[in-house]
Amino acid sequence: MVEENLKPISTTTRSGEKNQGQLRIIFWSKEERLKRALKAAGIGLGLTFIFIFLPIVHFILVPLALIITPLVSVYLYKQTEEVPKQNLICPKCAANVEVSSSNKFEKIELICDSCRSVLEISAN
Ligand SMILES: [Zn+2]
Predict the structure, then answer these.
(1) Given a cut of 90, is residue 104 above it in pLDDT?
(2) Alpha carbon distance, N-terminus to C-terminus of the chain
(3) What is the pLDDT of residue 1?
(4) Secondary structure of the chain in the HEC alphabet?
(5) 16 C-alpha to center of ligand 1: Å?
(6) What's the total number of domains in the chain?
(7) pLDDT tens-digit series, residues 18-66
């Protein structure tokens, strides 16, 4: 099951401006992670099979796909949560700042495109 949650966060700049907001976070259940991992493995093995028939480049692509496929599958299985692409408001210049992360949310640091300040996003 895919569960979506809104987490209260605060955005702080190095010079002390601060605002509050909410961050959308997606949580993957164990079954959903297994489904995503198996889907990636299927696509990887399918591509590997297609690569077998490509002359010359199959010497590189087949071993590469055989190495990458399990790594991607394990990565997807271990990924428990994700911060999807969304906008937050910069506390200094009030511009929209795009934020996203494929890791577990603890703290995100990013740079505002319009005022170049470093923004630190952390849970409240
Ligand atoms: Zn800004």
Answers:
(1) no
(2) 26
(3) 80
(4) CEEEEEEEEEEEECCCCEEEEEEEEEEECHHHHHHHHHHHHHHHHHHHHHHHCCCCCHHHHHHHHHHHHHHHHHHHHHCCEEEEEEEEECCCCCCEEEEEECCCCCEEEEECCCCCCEEEEEEC
(5) 13
(6) 1
(7) 999 999 999 999 999 999 999 999 999 999 999 999 999 999 999 999 9
Domain span at 109: 2-123
The rounded Å distance from CA 84 to ligand 1 centre is 20
Rounded distance from Cα 123 to ligand 1 centre (Å): 20
Cα of 14 vs centre of ligand 1, distance in Å, is 12
Please state, in angstroms and rounded to a whole number, the distance separating the CA atoms of residues 26 and 24.
Answer: 7
